[in-house]
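Worked example

This section walks through a single chain of length 278. The input is the sequence exactly as stored; nothing has been trimmed or padded.
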Amino acid sequence: MELLEALATRVVVADGAMGTLLLARGAQGCLEELCLTQPERVGQVHRDYLAAGAQFIRTHSFGSNAARLAQWGLERRVGELNWTAARIAREAAKGTGAIVAASVGPTGQGSGAGRLLKEQVGALLDGGAQCVIFETFTDVEELLTALEVKQSLHHCPAVALLAGGSGALAAWAGGHSDAGVASTFMRLREAGADVVGVNCTGTPAETLAALGDADLAGCAVFPSAGLPGPAGDYALSAEAFADGAQALVGRGVRLIGGCCGTTPEHIAALTARLFPAE
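Given that input, the structure is written out below as tokens.
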């Protein structure tokens, strides 16, 4: 099902964190390179989230732009890495009806962001991604550039997510109330975002507090569960995550998933909470 059609009829549960889960499972080095060196490992993460009930999965490509890959000497393999990431996710989702989104993170390169993003997004779409999710952006201007790049390449749906705690949310529009969040979301929609929201803003409860009374109808939110402690226990239990995420859905959120530390167990608990009869 196409993303906007799905969101018009129901709440869509997305996957959780790819990077922190791979690290917890022992991955090392450049995580994005695993798409080429250990594709089965990446595919298994996708399958685990799908088995947990996710109907929206993100390609393992968050940091696969040339600027970030350069630290690993992989800046000339942007096209290969992103195309492969999309193919792995499409293969994992085959027969499930799940939507595959191209995951794109910030480049931090200011005026050079457009060229880097175009290279990455183009390869992800060529690989079969059905929509694009720009996530963990802290610079509104770079996110606006990302949306412009996506519009120049394809008219598939775009999800635009900003990151940060309550201080960052207030700073987006130079104000300190939810009016700042609302005006920023409006700018993103005017730039071509079909769905707007936040990710990596802390736990679900912290995210709710940071967003204040902002209108979340139709928004996307990907809160965090925290990182595992010395005993391997996550900062937020699966049930506590589900409680908070359900509260976000109660505020009108339509696309709900997880960021740092969110595992298939967290997503399974959320799915069971939202769709108990299924």
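What to look for: Strands lie at 12-13, 56-58, 99-104, 131-137, 158-163, 195-199, 220-222, 255-256.
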